[in-house]
Please model this.
Amino acid sequence: MPSANLIDRSLTLLTDRIHTMPILVLFPHSRCNCRCIMCDIWRGNDQLVEIRTEQVRSNMNEIRKLGVKWVLLSGGEALMHQGIFDICKLFRDEGLRVTVHSTGLLLEKFAAEIVEHCTDLIVSLDGSPPVHDAIRNLPGGFAKLSNGVSAVQSVSSDFPISARCVIQKANFRDLPNIIETARVLRLGQISFLGADVSSQAFNRQDGWNDARSETVTLTQSEVSEFRHILAEVIDANQDSFASGFVAESPEKLTRIVEYYAAVNGQGDFPKVRCNAPWVSSVVEADGTVRPCFFHESLGNINSNTLDEILNSKAAIRFRKQLKVSADPICRRCVCSLNLGPRARV
Model:
């Protein structure tokens, strides 16, 4: 007999009404402690906005009702939130998986609390030490990341830590070193994605103009160079792909090359399979609720409950009308999610 969660998730995909939502992405804090060249979140550091612990507590019945299984704390730097571990405890007391996505700069300070109150950790890794620091505009940033990872590992040697890397103009040539750096840090896994340059996400209310995008995207000649580099990386790291140390398959990594080729007008964007608006949502530090990182707001938890927002007439209509294969935002997406009814989170 199929489980209730399987039935509910299937109903969601069939009816466009959220019966169960396995994944909740929460931005607890609006600020960031890096100044990455491919992200503008830090440009809003003059305005502090935080999700209040009481807001999370007051929405816990809704989170329970929606069948959330996994909470990803991102942002902005989640660890800059003054009560971040109180929030983590609320989720852990519900038996939820709690993942923190961090720049790594505060890991050493909070190593014990992370192990106690979180399930796993994702750190941002942008390259070997000098490349990482240049991209993050933070001298000594890699050293802090490395020390922080070691601190967490010293508290619990088997605490799951993985890395995520945004491949772009400043680091595509460093790809072999990025994989090796992840090994040296003794991380469990590293994943890769391209840089979003077309949406209004990540504090880019007006988007980027062509000149700004060109500082991050690859040129036509760089796409060809990256294609060659990636072929060599795939050939030299077959064990890492087979073991899952590199999260993506060689085919999925090749999609990053095709994405940048399409940005340059060289062919179509890779086909996207995604059901994020049906299985997840994003709640930002000011309470804004989005169906994913890139689409427009559905409402705000300061005005309505999460369930009211996600199952409003407007939200259901959005999901019914959304054709991922044709939607211009979806077609250029660098961070798609395709969670099947039987997938575990």
